[in-house]
Amino acid sequence: MPASPLTDLSRCAIHTMTNKPWTLGQCIDGYREAGIGAMSVWRNVLEPIGAKEAGKMLRAADMRVPALVRGGFFPAHDPGARAAALDVNRTCIDEAREIGAEMVVLVVGAVPGMAMAEARKQTADGIAAVLPHARAAGVKLAIEPLHPMYAADRSCINRMAEARTICEQLRDPFLGIAVDGYHVWWDPDLREEIMLAGEQKTLFAFHVCDWRVETRHPLNDRGLMGDGCIDLRTIRGWVEETGFRGCNEVEVFSDHYWAMDQTQYLQLIRQAYLRYV
Amino acid sequence: MPASPLTDLSRCAIHTMTNKPWTLGQCIDGYREAGIGAMSVWRNVLEPIGAKEAGKMLRAADMRVPALVRGGFFPAHDPGARAAALDVNRTCIDEAREIGAEMVVLVVGAVPGMAMAEARKQTADGIAAVLPHARAAGVKLAIEPLHPMYAADRSCINRMAEARTICEQLRDPFLGIAVDGYHVWWDPDLREEIMLAGEQKTLFAFHVCDWRVETRHPLNDRGLMGDGCIDLRTIRGWVEETGFRGCNEVEVFSDHYWAMDQTQYLQLIRQAYLRYV
Questions:
Q1: pLDDT tens figures, B6-41
Q2: CA B23 → CA A188, B19, B102, B262, distances in Å?
């Protein structure tokens, strides 16, 4: 059953990458002005100023920060590279704490040609290794299953079922799943997996955008909600059926929209959010 | 366990679409000259000459024809369109019989925005409706699960599991599955599903090409075997573990390779087939 339409922006969050041309400061100002009080922060906008300064800015603006995006990329042929990835993930966790983010989103990684089962094993091992650090920092880790189109080089976890396997294996209140409609809308088991994540208390985040028909590029041709074929309202209905009342996070990678005036684009985002999520 | 390397071309088949610039006649001559005795025929190369004439040419060249490609596209909002799709599929079956093809490959279709469960139901209904015609013609129907990247508009069946569900529902010796490495390599259940298809006698076909990293275009940027990350030899090992001894069908859609001299390209295909399949 589809959810009732959203009537306000109170649960709307935007990922800074959605407005890629903007700095962190511009994002904060732009979102505030548009009446949006939550944002997930990508690491590229932290780089120029550091997490400490970013944290001050976000707190001064009274911004809720669902997530730091993104940790992960655990698998590697070389053990040294795997150890380095753990360090990067610990840094992500520290940064997340610094900016007051509730979780780090994990794009878990994949290595072209490595057997998927091995990559998934290395992913589980990597998450297990950094979980104590996350727990100590009070920052949750959310595995984001990525569309199978990214299975070669970005994520060996491509459905909620595979994320659930790792959550069940490590069973920790700080480990859960970020559900992104773009990546999982096609999965026949989606409703069932969302319900299971609800029961297991692993449903940490809900991301929205749309799947354009035709998709012109595998990376940066995501649609704004309503541009494509995903029935986001039905998926939100399932997510809320579990009791989830976190943010609906708008995460759109789009060369088309990045080329627009970002303030005008934000108005489109507001409209699309209220009309289609 | 990976299969032993192939030492000859005796089980190699090529899809005419792999050499898109060529007519049916050019494909037959080119493949013969390259020592390839099997080919799957796409409908576009039948159009200019008709199935009857095509059948004569293929028989005269003593070509084995694993498949006519492609039927399917069953789901539609309009009942009239669904009925028309059944007629098209019956025509495909007639053409397959005419050219001596063992099966019709089904790309089952999808309708942007239609609930996937509804599209799958209409697909099962459509297949059920044309199965008697296939049986009478002695032509098998092979459901080809397509990569989830095509779930919006080309196929609501994206994993072997979903194809199996329909096969189990309709249980008919003329209904099975075409396994294409490009579409299913990422699936964690792939080995298990191939074994199940073996047990259920539904493993009708095995298609090969490669997944390029990065993929530059969702449609026509497939790699030749060895260009990408798919461990085709391991997948062929699983396929052969079931007793499958049909053709290894080379099916590559690639703007890059279509721009080449097709005779030279055929030499690359031969090498890649022996080295990586």
A1: 999 999 999 999 999 999 999 999 999 999 999 999
A2: 39, 9, 21, 11
What value of ipTM does the predicted structure carry? 0.95
The pLDDT of residue A68: 98
Show the tokens assigned to A36: 């949006």
The alpha-carbon gap from A148 to the nearest alpha carbon of chain B, in Å, equals: 7
Give A112's contacts in chain B (Cβ within 8 Å): 213, 228-229
Residue of A nearest to B217 (CA): A217
> Scanning every residue of chain A, which has its alpha carbon at the shortest distance from the alpha carbon of B153?
A213
Q: Which residues of chain A have pLDDT under 70?
A: none
Distance CA B180, CA B249 (A): 9
- B187, two tokens: 């699936």
A12 vs chain B: nearest CA distance in angstroms? 24
Residue contact B149–A153, C-beta within 8 A: no
- Contact between A98 and A58 under an 8 Å Cβ cutoff? The reply is no
- Which of A153, A162, A218 has the CB atom closest to B188's CB atom? A162
Omega cis (within 30) before A70: yes
Using an 8 Å CB-CB cutoff, list chain A residues near B116.
Answer: 186, 188
* Alpha-helical regions (H) of chain A: 24-33, 43-46, 51-60, 79-99, 116-137, 160-170, 181-184, 190-199, 232-241, 255-258, 262-276
The model's pLDDT over A144-164, given as tens digits with 9 standing for 90+, comes to 999 999 999 999 999 999 999
pTM, two decimal places: 0.96
